[in-house]
Each structure stands twice: as structure tokens, then as C-alpha cells.
Amino acid sequence: MITEENFESVEQIERSFLIEYFVSNFSHRFDQNDETINQLYTMLRDPILENKIILTCFYYLEKIYVLYEIEIASLQIDSLFYSVLTCLILSTKYLMDDSWYNQEWCKLYSVPLETVNEWEMDFLAKLDFNLNLDDQYLRYVQEMVKYLNDLTFTNELTEVKKIEACERFQESESLVPQQYETEKTHINTLQIQTDLPPLSNDLLEITTDFSQQDKNCMIPNTFQFF
């Protein structure tokens, strides 16, 4: 059984790292300046939504994608937007006692209510109308926390290296030109470092396990776009 204690470590994670996970696994191939993409990031950054809701959204999203063998790379930007919005709606309804009505989501993000309702029913059917969070979800949370903590450590280590490089740069500025240019190049390299730690094998196994579950849902094994 999932309890609030299971989410304590999740709430301590910076939201920016959850966004980085989303970018790395879902939205990296799109233009990051696109209005729809920015609207997605606005949704995921909303302080009203706790981290556990964002993480549960990712869980439902990945579960549906794996169960129905949907290639993320094949999704159009609008489909990704409605997928995330729908999973956020399902997550809030399951985890929050006082969740928003669909009308409120639609008003907030200027989307048609009929479309959102259709996506919600489609995703519920794909999940066999079962939003329960089981032991597999708990493993997913634990592995995600481990991954995000690794990401946090990587970013913090990069910041330390940048500070150290800047200190060396300031020293070398008064020294020989060659060393000055070397330190300057090193700092610039650190500033554009964007490599994320690879997903752990355990997390990959969990998402792969989705495909072994029962697929006897009402909707055929195709992804419907509304």
C-alpha cells in the first residue's frame, strides 16, 4: 500500500530536475521555444501541484506508452500536450481530495472541454479504469528518486567545478596568455554541459514490465489522437 511516507523523498526533490527528466525523455526533440512546449513546462512547474502528482503523471504516461507500444518519437506536439494534461488530470483526481474540475483545466490552458473529456476517457480505458498505485509504482518512485538524486549530484558537482575553474581563471588572467585561454575554454565547456546521468537499469526494467501486464482494455491497441 502506498502511503504519504513513500512520497517524502519525492517532495524534497527540486521541481527543475523533474522537468529535466521530462525534457530528456519526452520533449527534447521539439523546439524548446515553441509555445505549446512552454505551456507544458508551465503546467509541470505549477507550485499548486506537488511533486508526487507530477511523478504519478509520468508513471501513467510511460505505462500507457509501453502497454500500447507508442513511440514517443512519433508523437506530434499537440498529442504530447494532451497526453501530459490528461495524465495530470488523472493524477490529481486520484491523489487530491479536492482536485480541479476539467472545466478549470480547460479554462486555465485554453483548450476545448470536449477534447479533454475524450482524452480522459481514452486514457482511462487504456488503463482499464484502474488508477491504483501498486508495488510496481513504489519501485518506480524509488528508482526515480535515485535517478533524480544522481542528477542533483551531477549538477552540484558541475557547479563546484565551475567555481573552481573560475578561481583558476582569475589567477591565470594575470599569467601567461596560453593558460588564460585554456581556463576560459574550460569554463565555457562547463557552462554548456547538459549531459544527464543515464536511467538506471532498474527504472528501465520497471517501464519495460508494463508490457507484460494485462492488455484487455476497451480501446484497441492503437493510440487515438483527438
UniProtKB/TrEMBL annotation:
Quote the Gene3D superfamilies the UniProt record gives: Cyclin-like
- Gene Ontology MF terms: protein kinase binding
This protein's species is: Anaeramoeba flamelloides
Family annotation (InterPro entries): Cyclin-like_sf, Cyclin_PHO80-like
The signal peptide annotation in the UniProt record is none
Q: Which named protein is this?
A: Cyclin
Report which superkingdom the organism of origin falls in: Eukaryota
